[in-house]
Fold:
Amino acid sequence: MTWVNAVVQGVLLGGLYALFACGLSLLFGVMRIINLAHGDLALLGTFMVFVIVDNIGWSPFAALIIVLPGAAVVGWALQRLMFDRAMQGGELAPLLATFGLSIVIGNLLLETFSADTHGLSAGALETSAWRISADLSIGALPALIFVLAVLLLSGLQLFLSYTPLGRAMRATADDPGTAELVGIDARRIYATASAIALATAALAGAFFGMRSSFDPTLGPTQLIFAFEAVIIGGLGSLWGTLVGGIILGVAQTVGAEIDPAWSILSGHIVFLAVLAFRQDGIFAVQEARA
Amino acid sequence: MSILEVRDLEVRHGLLQAVRGVSLSIEAGETLALVGANGAGKSTLLRAIAGAPPAPAAGSIVFDGADVTRMRAHDRVRNGIALVPEGRLLFPSLTVEENLLVARRPGEWTVDRVVEAFPILRERRRHRAATLSGGERQATAIGRALMTNPRLLLLDEVSLGLAPVAVEDVYRSLRSVIEAGTTVLLVEQDLTRALDSAQRVMCMLEGRLVLEGRAGELRREQITDAYFGLHRNGSGSARA
Structure:
């Protein structure tokens, strides 16, 4: 039963990884760029929630009312002021620009909040759990995060598949130059995608802060987990990102069940195995060209 | 009344000057064919009118009384200019219907009307664009441009690379579009098609317009000579 518990906890942890990876996957899917600042931007969301909770006394959930639109505005501005220009400089320029942004955000957070560990309290939700058996219980907060991840990723996938704006995003992802020729403002599409991606990153950051303690140096670690989830699932596929997050989470908890020291390592091993045997990930988007 | 006025347009691809001081105008409802050898600058001129890169180095493009020379491509589409680019550049991951819908702007052209005008798309509406044949792709590309409900349709080499039967299908459908009164600027290598479809023909050579005349008044040899830079006297006006 302890193995079943390990798998269940892994699935729930995978929800958090999928939540983190959502924005990364969307940005890659629409703009074909990998945002190396994604983990730090998510952590920026965590600290924004922390500031509101600490100063105004709101609950972290209420703080999201301010943080999510704020993150979307930051995403929009980043796209217009930075990513747009970087994308004109070839494939490497966005990587370098976002790497630089990651360092700047990480250091600003360190300067402002010091290296101390912080936490966000989710109230009664933090300690609530459904006890299924002696060896198996499901925490309310991890379950909420998992449900949120499923709803967010499926919602985004449905949005991309069935709405006019989603269609325009997919067309722009296919060919931004031709998209302009059919009346789509590619820069506006990119800015919208960036705003959504940053809002989902802040959401992930907020729930990460409720689930575990955090400090300003954790951005790159979150980026690696998000990146692994995206790669395992397949670049550009949101369904794949959800599955990739779950596989990574299960690998870590099952690894920890074998030996606590294996937790993070086993996740990386699964990631490397996917890279070795299925380079395009499990749900790779076909790159067919007309 | 002219719907499009191009004046002294210059477009460069790096060091290469692809369009050199081109001036032309198109009347509303007219079909103008632009012919010329490969590399004459036809596609570059068409792309410049549509707002695709490279941007003109000099000159102006006035559409329906408004200067659109510096306007971005998607804003020109909103103003009523639509380009069917060479190479039938569809969105491969979208279905035929989605390729059409993504371009939709208010007006009389709808998905159903496009499918009616291009019957070869009827069975392929839900298929991904990446799986289409050449003729189906071209029909989708033209249909997609029509979905923007343009007042000026720019067609770049619509017959290039298509099987003869597919060219016939596409032109049969295009005739109904032209007869509906859409203003068309057509770049075409196939002289017979160009002369059959257009009311007026212009010939480009090395970035310049070198011959202009009514389709019914120009002789085939005149156009062929202009094509290769050999001028003779005739009813068309030499512009070089």
Observations:
- The CA atoms of residues 31 and 190 of chain A lie 7 Å apart.
- Chain A has a mean pLDDT of 93.
- Strands of chain A lie at 129-131, 137-139.
